[in-house]
Amino acid sequence: MLGPRNWLSRQARTMGARVWAARIARSGRDAPAELRLLRDEARQQMRALRDFLHDSSPARFSGMARLKARRLPAGTDWRWRPEIVTMPLHTSSGIAAPASGTMLTDEIKLWHDCPDRALVLRQFPTPPGDPTLAPFTLRLEGFGFGGGYLSLSIDIPDAGRVGLGRDHIIRLDVAHAAERQALIHLRLNLSAGPNTEQVLAEL
Questions:
Q1: Maximum alpha-carbon separation in the chain
Q2: Rounded-to-integer distance, Cα 186 and Cα 87, Å
Q3: How far apart, in Å, are the Cα atoms of 59 and each of 54, 71, 93, 177, 179?
Q4: What is the domain extent for residue 42?
Q5: pTM score, two decimals?
Q6: Looking at the structure, do residues 12 and 86 belong to the same domain, yes or no?
Q7: 104 in helix, strand or coil?
Q8: pLDDT band at 143, cuts 50/70/90?
Q9: Does some domain include residue 61?
């Protein structure tokens, strides 16, 4: 693969941008079938560009460095933080009135049963000196929440599941604050084939 400063590489990226700019000028003259094809191609390229911006973000590398700076118990095999506190969300303005099952990142979904969806999620940079050393903080605001439950489900990456056995200890660190007292539970689901085990603990 050619480096980003290579002349051919720069020309290819420039030409790609020019092709789409020219398409904008003539989009009203394209047949519907051609427009559908071009829109599908544009979505694919948008996803690729979004993923590149996501993976190349300075916050990602800053978050990895901060995580490595934390002192961990002796014998720790693996450590991980979800992207919700290490990477900026795709929507910088936050998420308002999310539907149940909304994906916040590739790892995290939001679930609830509030009929009015009276929720707002925002992500903020963590203040300097914060002991968690996490680049970002997630804020969840409810306005007359009328549901019975609110849940974030987090998928542990493959790297954390490979080789996991009965002799392992799973530790979870959570830093949270609330304006009023709330009952919060943590549930770990472990699946092996058709069997699922659950571990429930109150935070």
A1: 66
A2: 23
A3: 9, 20, 17, 23, 28
A4: 7-55
A5: 0.63
A6: no
A7: coil
A8: confident
A9: no
